[in-house]
Amino acid sequence: MNAPFPLSTESVSLVDLRDPGELARLEGFVAEMRGTPFHRPAWLQAIAKGTGQKATGIVAEKCGQLTGWLPLTEAHSPIFGRALVSSGFGVDGGPLAETPETAENLCRMAEELAIRSSCPTVELRGGHAPADWNSWNDSHCGFVSDLADDDEAQLLAVPRKQRAEVRKSLKNDLKVTVGTLERDRAAHYSVYAQSVHNLGTPVFPRSLFNAVLCTFGKQADILTVWNNNIPVASVLSLYHQNTVYPYWGGGTFAARHLRANERMYYELMCHARKRGCDRFDFGRSKTGSGPYSYKKNWGFEPEPLAYASWTAAGHQRRDINPNNEAYSAKIALWKKLPLPVANLIGPMIAKGLA
C-alpha cells in the first residue's frame, strides 16, 4: 500500500508590499478574518507615506493559501528608540491568524526580523502572543456598541445624564459639516493640534492625516462642529466592515461650554448609521482615565485590550506611555509652549511614537 501523502507544512515569509497582487490578497484575508482597519495593508501604506516609518509585514501560508498575517511598522526615533510595531499608530493590528500556532510562528519570525533591523523591541496591539513574551491587559480598554435604528432612538440609548448634555448641544448655535476637502482637513488639524497640546502631547504631522484620507478614500471622512464659522470640535473617522471608528478627534477650550464634543459624537453616530454602519467603535482609553469615564458616560462598556511585547536580550523594553513618571515633567513643559512653536516641532517628535 502506498504511504500517505505528507501534509504540506506552513511557511512564513516577509511580504512584498510593492506587489499589487499581494496587496489585494492581503486585503481579502483581512476581510475574511474580520480584521480591523489597522490590519489592512492600506493602513501600513498610509502610515509609511505620512510619517516616513517603514512598512513591512510577515505572512504565513499553506498550500498557497494565506493562514496568517502580521502587519508591521518599523518605528525609529532618537527620542523613543526603535521597535517593530504591529500595527504602527494603530490601537489594534496584532497577529491575524487561523490558529494560535500560526500566530506564534509569525511572532517568532518577527523576533528575527527585529534583530536584523536593529529593533530591540517587538510590540503587538492585540492578537495571540507566545507565552514567553511580556503580555498585559490592564492598561487600556476598548469601547464598542451597536448603533440604534434612528436618530431619536440613538439619543434615547445614551444614559440620562449624558443625554441631557447632548440635548443642550443640540440647542446651541452649532453647524456640522462632513467632508474631506482642504477646508475640512485644515479645520480638523487646527482643532486636533490644540486638543493634544492642551494634553501635553506633540501633534502628529498633518501629512499623516492626509495620507490616511487619501489612501482610505470613501472609507474615511472628517466631521467638524463649527461655532460662528470657527471649528471647535472635529474628528477623522474610519469606516470598516459596517463599523465606524472615530479615530483622531478633539475639541478646543470653547468646545466644553458649547458641548461641541457631545454634538460631534452624536452627529457621527447618526451619520455613520446613514452610511450603513451598525456599530460604533469609540476607540481605546487608558483604564481609569478621564476619557475612559467619558465613554462609560455614553453607555459604552469597557473591554480590556490585550497587548504584548518581546525585547531582545540585553535591552530595555520601549516605553512610550505618557503616564510614565519619566514623561510627566516633559508633558508639563510641553503644555506651556506657545501653540505655534508646539505645532512646528511637534510633528518631528510625534512621528516616532508609532
What does this protein structure show overall?
By secondary structure, the chain is α+β, with helices and mostly antiparallel strands. It folds into two domains: 11-137 and 306-320, 3-Layer(aba) Sandwich (Aminopeptidase); 142-304, Aminopeptidase, CATH 3.40.630. The chain has twelve helices and 15 strands. It has helices at 20-32, 41-51, 100-116, 151-157, 160-171, 182-198, 206-216, 253-258, 260-274, 290-297, 325-336, 339-350; strands at 11-14, 54-62, 65-77, 81-86, 96-97, 121-125, 134-136, 140-146, 175-179, 220-227, 230-240, 243-251, 279-286, 302-304, 307-311. The strands form two sheets. Strands 1, 2, 3, 4, 5, 6, 7 and 15 form an eight-stranded mixed β-sheet that branches. A seven-stranded mixed β-sheet has the order 9-10-11-12-13-8-14, sandwiched between helices. Strand 11 and strand 12 (243-251) form a beta hairpin. Helix 2 (41-51) runs antiparallel to helix 7 and helix 5 packs across helix 9 (260-274). It is globular, with a radius of gyration of 21 Å.
CATH topology of the largest domain: Aminopeptidase
Number of helices: 12
CATH level-4 homologous superfamily of the largest domain = Gcn5-related N-acetyltransferase (GNAT)
Task: Please indicate the count of domains.
Answer: 2
- As a whole number of angstroms, the C-alpha radius of gyration is 21 Å
**The top level CATH class name of the largest domain:** Alpha Beta
Question: What overall geometry do the principal axes of the alpha carbons give?
Answer: globular
Average pLDDT confidence is 93
List how many beta strands DSSP finds: 15
From the N-terminal CA to the C-terminal CA, the straight-line distance is: 57 Å
Unreliable stretches? 1-6
Strand content: 25-35%
Q: What is the share of helical residues?
A: 25-40%
